[in-house]
Specification:
Shape of chain A: globular
Shape of chain C: globular
Strand content of chain C: 25-35%
Order of helices and strands of chain C: EEEHEHEHEHEEEEHEEEH
CATH topology of the largest domain in chain A: Rossmann fold
Radius of gyration of chain C: 22 Å
Strand order of the largest sheet of chain A: 1-3-2-4-5
CATH class of the largest domain in chain A: Alpha Beta
Order of helices and strands of chain A: HHHHHHHEEHHEHHEHEHEHEHEHEH
Number of helices of chain A: 17
Strand content of chain A: 5-15%
Strand order of the largest sheet of chain C: 9-8-7-10-6-1-4-5-11
Oligomer: heterotrimer
Number of strands of chain A: 9
Largest interface: B-C, 108 and 87 residues
Number of strands of chain C: 13
Number of domains of chain A: 3
Chains: A alpha/beta, B alpha/beta, C alpha/beta
Largest sheet of chain A: 5 strands, parallel
Number of helices of chain C: 6
Structural class of chain A: alpha/beta
């Protein structure tokens, strides 16, 4: 089949070397519950024309966790093949209504949540933060979900408190901030992604931003690995705070006698190999006992929040992965599931309710645990 | 004496509320304009309307014609433009209804008369008429002046209260100026929205969802709302956007283009409160609104409000309602 | 089938705070997101569906500044063949009647079977441009249209009435159809699609290009004058329950219980 640029999938994604070993499908967190099968899609992309392959709603099930990429013995990128297929669907306007709304809102409002751009900084209304025009060592790039979602706003607020406690000199873009485009690209909207990238790079340059720290691994990933022409250094907040901890600037003094288990976000762990910093932050809190999942770090299981899944209704049936993870956490005796990603926060909060473990286990962002340890 | 024309709106043998709201609402204005009020009644077999209108106007001007049996903007326009040219009313009022929206703009343009649509009030300023109307979804009011007299305006439903003034109208029958069949536009039939299994107009308690619930086709979203409705013994209704998306059938829509409801409890979730919606539910006994935007107009009609994310509030509310039921 | 669709680029004020400008004649536009008027989005889709079904041409027209080309480009990307934008400083202060005169001046020399407009605009909400345009062009119209089926120089049209009722009528073409939301499902148009559509013709016309004098539009050519805008006084306000969701929901359940609104 052909990509939106008219190239063959086989050449663009080097699919001829595929062994059809099936490791990708075997490692896919959705393939057991959906018709999604990276191995099959790679084969189809090679053998069939566009009409035969497309029009399958389950293509929107992929969370772009990229486990398939990690496991591929030939270094292929099945996840990119799926994204390429979505791109065709986008250009042909065969888009699920909810995805369409998220994309249209991102174009119009600069966020996929359908919220007014003038309300983006409302979460920070009483925090009197520096704005990017005043200049600062770090630009704190908040992200759409921490800016607008009432639950995740608390992550942004907590981060601000921890940054202040650790003496981080930072500013925010306020209402000028726009979606980073990580999920937009993964939903296949290449043009919109490029537009956001160009806009954001220009904004960062205008303010002379040299260092960006993000709440979300998704923003981190796209800035770090996919933005063209971005000169600034990019950090996930766990990296920055770990450095402050090592320098003795972040002091964790209050005791938190809890058993905490950590969920590796795919875009932080698997895709960017940041495994130690979050764990170090958690285990440095006095009193905390850090537990580990059986499947952790590179083998960790996706929460199903990435790749646009926050806006796409999945065809997948059966227990969601986040629910499985909550049950595992409870079985391991964890009292808190620590996350470091806004999407993990939302999917796990949901999963705790769905599994009926409310009151038994809590979902907290690492920033929220740190706040408890400093105050 | 000057005259104010009020166009009587009726459909399928019944006078519509807007007629009485206009006749009652324009009384002060007519007095200030030193004008009498004439109800202009067009139709076929409309004697019973004449009786019903007698106590509401100074005069009823009746034009009967077979061609006026059903509303047809073309036919109405021809008759009204004839009457207005002949009798020169200072002001002509038409409902800002589907009927009025179809009719008034073309009529005003034909006559070259200034038309203010969707008005909610009037003032006189140095002898000139000023209309009050809303813009930006009800967030702003505008004062709009008419450059020249005579004037024409369409009136928003429920903007004025219908209070019978106890008049006794003189009835005048005028000949129909329609000489030929209207061929450009022909009425064929009425069709009702498909009737579903639930009649929201009969419900004692309603949980209504609007744009703010997000994707109502999402099973999770739906189940959160349905669970609350179940506990409350309420039926689920909605505002227009939810129907436009095809997430609920048309017969669940509350508002001017949907159903008018008067339940004991109306719980509005994620509904901003555009007037088209409010007009269909404002007579509910107790109105509760949950919305993220503290400036949402729904809070001006609600008795109780919660400014928050409805998905944080509703699950707790469901739980508490369940407890309250168990506790008695 | 030759189709014209009239569209408007409007600010989205559904959630945003609205601030009136010091001259009281407008609202502050900074920080507001702009896009195609919601009703027009359906009108454009209907126009393109017609073209896809019956063949022909779709021309999108707007009155407005350079920024409204965003909306025209979207129309072109969705499938309109060409676009026209009318801009002139003299248009400032035009009412719906004056705007209809402008559209009439543009359209009257064109060939058309159907002119689609949105039933109203989300900003001023007059809901009269389409019907006024029809009168000025001397053709029939229907407002609040929810279904269109063209047949032999006529169209069977559904109009939305109140209370879930619709009327069906037969209307002679050419006609102006002012479209109600929900008539169709507007399609997605990608940014790449918008970029590709940049090759399509977008003509910018001034008043003199369409043969109107400045006196025929703007405040002079209008029949209504906007005196002032103001924030409506709050007559009644709900009792707002405050606190975290747990607290507010608990308070509310208490109130409902007290009022006997919880069935037992």
């Amino acid at each position: 089949m052909e990509t939106i640029d008219g190239e063959s999938f086989g050449e663009k994604y080097d699919l001829f070397v595929c062994l059809q070993c099936g490791k990708c499908t075997g490692s896919c967190p959705l393939s057991m519950r959906s018709q999604l099968s990276p191995r099959k899609h790679v084969r189809e992309a090679l053998l069939f024309d566009n009409e035969v392959v497309l029009d399958k709603e389950f293509l929107w099930d992929c969370t772009t966790c990229a486990t398939c990429r990690l496991r591929c013995p030939r270094d292929l990128q099945p996840v990119e093949v799926i994204i390429g297929m979505r791109s065709i669907l986008i250009e042909e306007a065969k888009v699920p209504a909810t995805v369409q709304e998220a994309l249209e809102s991102t174009f119009k409002n600069g966020n996929p949540w359908g919220r007014a751009p003038s309300k983006r900084d409302e979460w920070a209304a009483e925090l009197s933060l520096k704005s990017a025009s005043e200049g600062a060592e770090y630009l704190y790039y908040v992200g759409c979900t921490p800016a607008y979602d009432p639950r995740v706003q608390n992550v942004a607020k907590s981060l601000v408190r921890v940054f202040k406690a650790a003496g981080v000199d930072f500013a925010i873009l306020g209402n000028e901030e726009k979606c980073c485009g990580n999920e937009i690209r993964r939903m296949g909207e290449v043009g919109l992604f490029e537009m956001l990238m160009e806009d954001n790079v220009e904004i960062f340059e205008n303010y002379g931003v040299e260092r960006i720290v993000t709440s979300s691994p998704h923003c981190y990933n796209v800035f770090k690995n996919e933005y063209e022409g971005l000169k600034a250094e990019v950090f996930h907040y766990t990296q920055l705070l770990c450095e402050k901890l090592d320098n003795g600037l972040l002091k964790l003094t209050k005791e938190l006698k809890k058993k905490v288990i950590y969920q590796d976000p795919c875009f932080l762990g698997k895709q960017n190999k940041i495994f130690e910093e979050p764990r170090k932050l958690i285990s440095s809190i006095p009193g905390v006992e850090l537990l580990e999942y059986d499947r952790e770090k590179e083998r960790s299981v996706c929460c199903e929040g990435g790749g646009g899944r926050m806006w796409a209704e999945a065809t997948a049936t059966g227990e969601r992965t986040a629910e499985t993870r909550v049950k595992e956490a409870v079985a391991l005796g964890a009292e808190i599931i620590a996350v470091a990603c806004p999407f993990c926060m939302l999917t796990f909060e949901d999963a705790v309710k769905m599994t009926g473990y409310e009151g038994k286990i809590e979902v907290k962002d690492i920033s929220e645990l740190l706040v408890e340890a400093i105050e | 004496m000057a005259e104010v024309f009020v166009l009587v709106e009726h459909r399928r043998g019944e006078l519509r509320d807007i007629t009485f709201e206009m006749l009652s609402g324009c009384r002060d204005l007519a007095k200030n304009l030193n004008a009498s009020i004439t109800a202009v009644l067009l139709g076929k077999n409309i004697d019973n309307f004449v009786e019903q209108l007698k106590s509401w106007a100074d005069k009823i001007l009746v034009v009967e014609d077979d061609k006026l049996e059903n509303f047809n903007a073309e036919a109405y326009q021809r008759v009204l433009s004839h009457l207005i040219k002949e009798r020169k009313p200072i002001l002509t009022l038409i409902g800002h209804t589907s009927f009025g929206m179809d009719l008034a703009p073309a009529l005003a343009a034909e006559l070259g008369i200034p038309l203010a649509t969707d008005c909610i009030g009037f003032e006189l300023q140095d002898g000139r008429l000023v209309a009050i109307r809303q813009m930006y979804g009800g967030k702003v009011n505008a004062r709009i002046s008419f450059k020249t007299a005579p004037y024409m305006a369409t009136i928003r439903s429920a903007a004025f209260k219908a209070e019978e003034p106890g008049l006794s109208a003189e009835v005048e029958k005028a000949p129909s100026p329609l000489t030929e069949e209207i061929t450009t536009k022909r009425f064929l039939e009425y069709v009702e929205a498909a009737v579903g299994e639930v009649d929201i107009t009969q419900a004692e308690r309603i949980v209504a969802v609007g744009r703010g619930v997000g994707d109502y086709s999402d099973e999770k979203v739906r189940s959160i709302i349905e669970e609350l409705a179940n506990e409350l013994g309420a039926v689920i209704a909605c505002s227009r956007p939810i129907v436009d998306k095809g997430w609920l059938p048309k017969d669940r829509q509350v508002g001017t283009s949907g159903k008018t409801v008067k339940p004991k409890l109306y719980l509005a979730l994620g509904i901003s409160g555009a007037f088209q919606h409010v007009a269909g539910m404002s007579a509910s006994e107790t109105i509760v609104a949950v919305n993220k935007d503290p400036k949402a107009p729904i809070f001006t009609v609600a008795d109780y409000g919660i400014v928050d994310d409805l998905f944080k509030v509703v699950p707790v509310l469901t739980e508490k309602v369940r407890e309250a039921k168990g506790g008695s | 089938m030759k189709i014209v669709v009239c569209v408007k680029h409007v600010p989205d004020t559904a959630e945003a705070d609205v601030v009136i400008t010091p001259d009281k004649k407008g609202i502050k536009k900074e920080g507001l997101a702009f896009g195609i008027n919601e009703w027009d989005e359906y009108a454009v889709e209907e126009a393109i569906l017609m073209k896809e079904k019956y063949g022909g041409e779709v021309v999108a027209i707007t009155i407005g500044g350079k920024e409204s080309e965003d909306t025209l480009r979207r129309c072109l990307a969705k499938g309109a063949d060409r676009a026209i934008r009318i801009e002139d400083p003299a248009l400032e202060g035009s009412d719906a009647y004056a705007l209809a005169k402008v559209l009439c001046a543009v359209i009257k020399g064109m060939e058309y079977d159907i002119i689609f407009t949105g039933a109203q605009a989300g900003d001023d909400g007059f809901g009269q441009v389409g019907q006024t345009l029809a009168e000025l062009l001397g053709i029939p119209h229907a407002a609040l249209v929810t279904k269109v089926e063209p047949q032999d120089g006529k169209a069977k049209v559904h109009r939305e009435l109140e209370g879930g009722l619709e009327e069906v009528l037969e209307i002679q073409l050419p006609a102006v159809l002012a479209v109600q939301t929900g008539i169709n499902e507007p399609r997605y148009v990608s940014i790449m699609g918008i970029r590709k559509a940049k090759k399509k013709e977008l003509k910018v016309l001034s008043l003199s290009d369409i043969g109107l004098s400045p006196d025929e539009v703007g405040e002079k050519g209008s029949l209504l004058t906007l005196e002032e805008l103001y924030i409506p006084p709050v007559e009644k306000m709900a009792e707002i329950l405050t606190g975290a969701p747990d607290e507010t929901a608990t308070k509310l359940a208490g109130i409902l219980d007290e009022r006997g609104l919880i069935p037992k």
